[in-house]
Write a structure and sequence with these properties.
Length: about 200
């Protein structure tokens, strides 16, 4: 009959490395870095979990928060201020982006004043060799070519998950703006041709 082999218990944690005199050996640089990285990771997880809890509570109207939720916000007032500031900054950036993409039509009086000022500048530029025209994609929207940041622009619609069909450029006719540039160039007001971001070449 075989005798039962003695059971050997295995400690889940390795014993500390002992020095020559029986004391614990000094921590190596590598072990220190690993320990510090674990501590930093645990702190980050704890911070992220708290941040998420606070954000969820902030989404609840103040009058509908429980006593525990209110106490949680008060206990971490500094974090709450930081989160609210971040949310307001994000909201302001979104509002600014929306404002920039809105198409606004100026009054006829404003357009007339700006047109007169532009004509004055163009006439004065001839004595200095003309001017360089730098336009954006909106310069060609009247020809049926979509712009980028406008209300129905390529980037605006793509952000909404919508596709913007591009026209066949050979079928697009030059606009009054394109023809005006040709006339200005022919009369030596417009210098070095036209620099257009939309990068199209409409036949003129």
């Amino acid at each position: 009959m075989r005798s039962a082999s003695p059971r050997v218990s295995v400690c889940p944690f390795p014993p500390p490395v002992m020095g020559d005199h029986g004391d614990a050996a000094p921590e190596t640089d590598r072990a220190k870095r690993k320990r510090e990285a674990k501590v930093a990771f645990a702190q980050r997880e704890e911070h992220d979990a708290l941040d998420l809890r606070l954000r969820k509570v902030l989404l609840i109207p103040e009058t509908q928060r429980s006593a525990d939720q209110t106490s949680l916000l008060r206990a971490h007032a500094t974090c709450v201020v930081s989160i609210v500031s971040s949310l307001e900054h994000r909201k302001a950036r979104k509002a600014t982006h929306t404002t920039r993409t809105e198409e606004r039509e100026e009054s006829k009086d404003s357009i007339a004043k700006k047109t007169a000022k532009l004509a004055e500048l163009i006439r004065a530029s001839r004595a200095r060799g003309g001017f360089v025209l730098h336009t954006g994609a909106g310069f060609s929207t009247a020809a049926g070519v979509p712009d980028f940041r406008g209300q129905h622009g390529v980037w605006t619609m793509r952000a909404k998950g919508m596709h913007v069909p591009m026209p066949r450029f050979e079928r697009c006719a030059p606009t009054h703006a394109h023809l005006a540039c040709v006339a200005l160039h022919a009369n030596k007001f417009l210098k070095h041709g036209m620099c257009c971001i939309s990068q199209i070449r409409l036949p003129v």
